[in-house]
Amino acid sequence: MIDLQIVLAAIFWIALLLIFQSYVGIYLILFVTTGLKPRSRPLSHEGIPPTLTVIVPAYNEEAIIADKVENLLSLDYPTGRLEIVVASDCSTDGTAGIVKHYADRGVRLVEFTERHGKLGIIDALVPQVSGDVVVITDTNVIFAPDALLRMAEPYCDPEVGAVCGNLRLISPPGGRNVEGEVIFNRYENIMKRLMGRIGMVVSAFGGFQSLRRGLFRPLGSRPVHDDVILPLEVMAQGYKVAYAKDAGAVEATQSTIKAEYLRRIRMTALNLNCIPRALKLAFKAGPKVLFIAASYKVLRWICPYLFVLLLAASLGLMGVSPVYNVAAALFGVTILLAAIGWLRDRYGLKGTIVTDVYHFTAMNIAALAGIPPWLRGAKRYWSPRGM
């Protein structure tokens, strides 16, 4: 092969290996090293569980905020040990007014006069609240009755500094062809369960996560994923991050693939912003955490760009080896199936395998489409369920 072909071959195999590691390799490694270990008995509190503060960032959520507050008030947790704080982020609808009606039931409303976004709300409120443990949740996440009790259990281990709940995604009423998100969420829960067995959950669910208040470190002004940075900050201080599989909650997905595509465009900026800080914190936390964080999160964030390199290398090497011919052909088939899936989805037809291919392809294209907004500067906030 000529020099260019050698370079393309190196790009092809490196990209392929990294993609495999992100989607399959890290799972196999965690399964073999942790999944086959004897299951330890779950920890439980012999005394009084820790005091909890639940923080609910909200912006123009009048349609669902009452359901959220009612859900929190109905949870099974010792009287006097649960504080509920709803932060209205300059809401222009009736969100704040609805929350005020719950003041006599102990719900505290904090009204911001300038937009902070979820990250700014976390930075502002966590140092001020009273709970030993802070639970961060979203307005559209509904907890199981014992969710907070189950989330509190791992904290009886003094080495545990943060806990990720078991957040299950469901298709919303009227949702169309979003089953791919539900399936991927199941994979995410499996990965978190495996990581939790060694106390190294490098990424929590943003809608249902918690940490010891004393271990909180500000997220800062640069927009990042709070559900990645907060656990890594805890591990960088030498503490474990656990996964509470019995701490159940549900959240509705976006209603359409297009809506999820737009959300992924926005998330691209946070993904790319996160990489330097995530790697720095993971390095401080130790080689195991660094390996998991790099494989499970960082590689996943850059996989869309690796797919582009893999495609370019495949096309450039066509005719050199059957392997590259097959790879290029597979890309062609994938694009064709995705196009068929897009047409089916556009005309409201129920999902099939081609719709799943379209969904997967669209999510990767979103990462490419998100680069220009990232270069222009990521926003710290946006309107819920929209651009």
Order the strands across the largest sheet as they lie in space. Answer: 3-2-1-4-7-6-8-5
Structural class based on helices, strands and sheet pairing: alpha/beta
N/C terminus separation: 48 Å
**Which ranges are low-confidence, i.e. pLDDT below 50, for 5 or more consecutive residues?**
none
Largest beta-sheet details: 8 strands, mixed
What do these coordinates show?
With 387 residues, this protein is of the alpha/beta class. The protein has one domain (1-48, 132-387). Helix content is 51%, strand content 15%. It contains twelve helices and eight strands. The protein has helices spanning 3-35, 65-73, 95-100, 117-125, 147-152, 179-196, 226-236, 257-285, 287-316, 322-346, 353-369, 371-376, and strands spanning 52-58, 82-89, 107-112, 133-137, 141-143, 160-170, 208-212, 240-252. An eight-stranded mixed beta sheet has the order 3-2-1-4-7-6-8-5, sandwiched between helices. Helix 2 (65-73) links the parallel strand 1 and strand 2 (82-89). Helix 8 (257-285) crosses helix 11, helix 9 (287-316) packs across helix 10 and helix 9 crosses helix 11. The radius of gyration is 22 Å and the shape is globular. The termini are far apart.
SSE diagram, text form:
Elements: H1 3-35, E1 52-58, H2 65-73, E2 82-89, H3 95-100, E3 107-112, H4 117-125, E4 133-137, E5 141-143, H5 147-152, E6 160-170, H6 179-196, E7 208-212, H7 226-236, E8 240-252, H8 257-285, H9 287-316, H10 322-346, H11 353-369, H12 371-376
Parallel strand pairs: 1-2, 1-4, 2-3, 6-8
Antiparallel strand pairs: 4-7, 5-8, 6-7
